[in-house]
């Protein structure tokens, strides 16, 4: 059993921990819309109101309650507050069930689920809260997840500390899509070692990290130098409100922090693309990018280790000489005036982006003959030409997420859960996609039930034919599933290997022949 096989088993656990939400303006012009009995606190200040003065949904109180209410704008509707007490125990039990149901994991020997959970950091949040407020025709949302002992594990991949955003003073004004973030791999070697130790594979992990790479270094050395700052700008301003066809897309990517990595990467780049040539005052290559309808993109590097990728040399020159920058653009400032000066992820989409998405969705829906097409077209019509924005900021004791979501809606969304937002309805696929999605979800449900039963069987040393206590399994291991398009039948006794404990009556939802032979 290699460490890579172990990593496959552990990778099944990762989706549990990365459901980051959204956040609300601190300096909004709509502060006067706050409910009279509860005023928004100053940014970063503790909440002035008591828990009794807040919405009933969160009035039960918690040792973490006042801390979180200082992080979310209680002038908006507090949609959800959750104290995560006991979450770690639930996650540990779920991890045990997953590991017990993965045949590859059994060959690793004793696995410490507690150490795996703590290393990855998927159950460290002690509490979380989110709020929503209407500001004109925009929805402003905030979420804060509280980590009393600080963040660890994979939550550090966007940087251990918030950094000053550079894109407002660097990216040209009127750029339609901007993404700025950090890629910090320096903590990964230690994290891999901790996870491997919990799996009894520390020696294998050390070997894995120390194996020489074709570029002349090992993985541990490569990761220890990987602390990069990435900026992306995309310009689709040539699109019209009702375009006849997509226009060529200009883009710009800059990656800083690669001075130590560049000497390792250059031989590999030259092997694949030939010797570099002088372009725009740097060294680099030209390459085709047909998906973006640009004939030749440029990929450049400088002695400072800065990597640059641009759709064309002319656009790169425009980026570097533009007189007006993004931070001076009225659409950008209007959509981000509630952002902190520092953060770990910045996303801004200009009014052109909803226009382009609306056109793509409508065009695609009209080309398919499916019953879901009218729904897609209707959802696309809700997209108005207004900016979107998102900011994630790592703080010493948690993660704050801020977002603005303008959609065309006449309903009072603040009185209900924020499930009818643009992002949650826009990407409902047509019938063919949905059938495939339902089938994949059903097979995953069947697999989860099988893993839970096998985990319970192993822990309690049961044999095929012994009764299955489904109520206990659904209470302690995994929730009872519901299939879209079928009904489940649950076996009364522990099945033999290859037989299913949970089956769907929809024949289209069955896994490929032979796939379940080892379940």
From TrEMBL:
Chain positions covered by the region annotation Disordered: 29-58
Alphabetical UniProt keywords: Signal
Superkingdom of the source species: Bacteria
Signal peptide: 1-26
Composition-biased stretches (Low complexity): 45-57
The protein's name: Uncharacterized protein
Species of origin: Luteolibacter rhizosphaerae
């Amino acid at each position: 059993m290699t460490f890579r096989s172990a990593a496959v088993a552990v990778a099944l656990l990762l989706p549990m921990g990365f459901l980051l939400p959204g956040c609300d303006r601190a300096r909004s012009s709509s502060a006067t819309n706050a409910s009279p009995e509860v005023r928004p606190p100053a940014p970063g200040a503790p909440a002035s109101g008591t828990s009794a003065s807040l919405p009933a949904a969160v009035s039960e109180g918690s040792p973490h309650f006042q801390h979180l209410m200082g992080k979310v704008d209680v002038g908006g509707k507090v949609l959800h507050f959750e104290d995560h007490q006991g979450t770690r125990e639930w996650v540990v039990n779920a991890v045990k069930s997953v590991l017990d149901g993965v045949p590859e994991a059994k060959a690793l020997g004793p696995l410490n689920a507690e150490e795996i959970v703590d290393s990855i950091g998927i159950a460290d949040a002690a509490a979380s809260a989110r709020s929503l407020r209407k500001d004109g025709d925009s929805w402003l949302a905030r979420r804060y997840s509280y980590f009393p002992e600080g963040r660890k594990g994979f939550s550090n991949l966007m940087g251990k500390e918030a950094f000053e955003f550079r894109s407002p003073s660097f990216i040209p004004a009127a750029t339609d899509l901007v993404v700025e973030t950090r890629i910090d791999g320096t903590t990964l070697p230690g994290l891999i070692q901790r996870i491997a130790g919990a799996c009894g594979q520390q020696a294998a992990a050390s070997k894995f990290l120390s194996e020489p790479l074709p570029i002349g270094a090992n993985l541990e050395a490569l990761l220890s130098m990987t602390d990069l700052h990435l900026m992306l700008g995309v310009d689709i301003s040539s699109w019209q409100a009702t375009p006849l066809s997509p226009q060529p897309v200009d883009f710009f990517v800059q990656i800083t922090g690669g001075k130590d990595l560049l000497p390792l990467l250059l031989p590999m780049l030259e092997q694949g693309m030939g010797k570099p040539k002088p372009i725009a005052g740097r060294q680099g290559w030209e390459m085709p990018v047909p998906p973006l309808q640009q004939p030749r993109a440029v990929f450049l590097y400088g002695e400072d280790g800065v990597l640059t990728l641009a759709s064309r040399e002319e656009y790169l020159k425009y980026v570097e000489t533009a007189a007006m920058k993004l931070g001076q653009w009225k659409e950008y400032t209007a959509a981000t005036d509630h952002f902190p000066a520092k953060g770990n992820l910045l996303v801004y989409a200009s009014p052109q982006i909803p226009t382009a998405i609306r056109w793509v969705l409508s065009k695609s829906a009209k080309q398919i003959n499916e019953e879901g097409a009218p729904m897609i077209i209707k959802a696309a019509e809700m997209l108005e030409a207004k900016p979107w924005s998102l900011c994630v900021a790592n703080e010493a004791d948690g993660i704050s997420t801020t977002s603005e979501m303008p959609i065309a809606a006449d309903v009072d969304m603040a009185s209900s859960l924020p499930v009818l937002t643009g992002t949650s309805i826009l990407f409902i696929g047509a019938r063919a996609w949905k059938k495939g999605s339902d089938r994949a979800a059903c097979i995953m449900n069947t697999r989860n039930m099988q893993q839970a039963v096998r985990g319970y069987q192993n822990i309690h040393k049961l044999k095929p034919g012994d009764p299955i206590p489904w109520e206990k399994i659904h209470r302690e291991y995994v929730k009872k599933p519901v299939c879209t398009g079928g009904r489940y039948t649950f076996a009364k006794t522990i099945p033999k290997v290859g037989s299913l404990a949970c089956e769907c009556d929809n024949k289209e939802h069955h896994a490929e022949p032979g796939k379940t032979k080892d379940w």
